[in-house]
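Query structure, 295 tokens:
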């Protein structure tokens, strides 16, 4: 069933609240559902959320048009592959010459989210969620993929539904990643952006490989404190990967440890850029830095 679209006035109120939070470096006035590496998911209204609103950095009008079109195309292609995707709309709010985009979805029951589904059960390689997750890796190709971490899915007991579509995993026939990173790279100092973009381009290439996607799924279990599920998940995923070389726990742990070093470095660059923007240039910094301080 389609969920009612959020009213423009609701998003305006949310953005006003976000503006205050960014200015004060204080997220206490926000209902934070979760932090991603590039965005923050906010429940709205705060007291009784009906929607999850994932906020992007400001775009130029042409960048926003490209982003909105890309997310729509991505959702269509994932659904065409046979996978369910939660109702999603991309809404832009004009702020001067820039557009702040919100990826809006209905608020789902917390118990239906993949990591909570696993946390509520005894580890079992035959759990139907894991079986469905292993099947989902079949979507992965050199032109279309998914960020298949368990946190990115909802499970109703029989149907797996993809939630995370804000970073469309799509490449053209020449291997070019179609998601435009430049608006997001404004979160870090200008001299570092080219190198970080190169590094991130190499990182996302792993999502076009089924085996690497499976390793990433298991690595995320360490981050979520679901280590008891590592071996059962590996068993389930390896069944689905056949005849591809099986993945191992040691590979996933190395992958997790590598990410555990990479993302804090990015947050330090963000902190440096925010200091430059707010203290030197006296301009707003439009990104959240959750691992360093509140906002």
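Result returned for the query:
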């Amino acid at each position: 069933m389609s969920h009612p679209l959020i009213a423009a006035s609701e998003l305006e109120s949310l953005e006003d609240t976000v503006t205050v939070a960014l200015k004060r470096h204080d997220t206490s006035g926000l209902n934070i559902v979760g932090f991603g590496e590039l965005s923050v998911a906010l429940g709205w209204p705060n007291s009784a959320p009906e929607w999850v609103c994932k906020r992007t950095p400001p775009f130029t009008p042409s960048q926003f048009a490209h982003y909105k079109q890309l997310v729509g195309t991505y959702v269509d292609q994932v659904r065409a592959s046979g996978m369910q995707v939660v109702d999603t709309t991309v809404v832009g709010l004009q702020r001067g010459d820039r557009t702040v985009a919100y990826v809006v979805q209905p608020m789902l029951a917390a118990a239906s989210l993949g990591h909570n589904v696993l946390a509520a059960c005894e580890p079992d390689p035959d759990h139907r969620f894991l079986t469905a997750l292993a099947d989902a890796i079949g979507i992965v190709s050199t032109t279309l993929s998914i960020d298949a971490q368990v946190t990115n899915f909802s499970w109703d007991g029989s149907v797996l539904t993809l939630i995370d579509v804000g970073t469309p995993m799509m490449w053209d026939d020449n291997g070019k990643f179609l998601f435009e990173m430049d608006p997001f790279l404004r979160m870090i100092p200008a001299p570092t952006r080219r190198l970080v973009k190169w590094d991130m381009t190499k990182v996302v290439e792993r999502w076009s490989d089924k085996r690497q996607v499976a390793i990433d799924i298991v690595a995320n279990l360490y981050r979520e404190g679901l280590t008891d599920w590592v071996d059962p998940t590996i068993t389930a995923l390896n069944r689905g990967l056949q005849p591809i070389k099986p993945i191992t726990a040691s590979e996933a742990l190395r992958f997790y440890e590598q990410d555990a070093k990479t993302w804090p470095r990015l947050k330090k660059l963000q902190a440096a850029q925010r200091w430059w923007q707010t203290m030197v240039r006296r301009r707003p910094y439009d990104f959240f830095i959750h691992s360093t301080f509140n906002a």
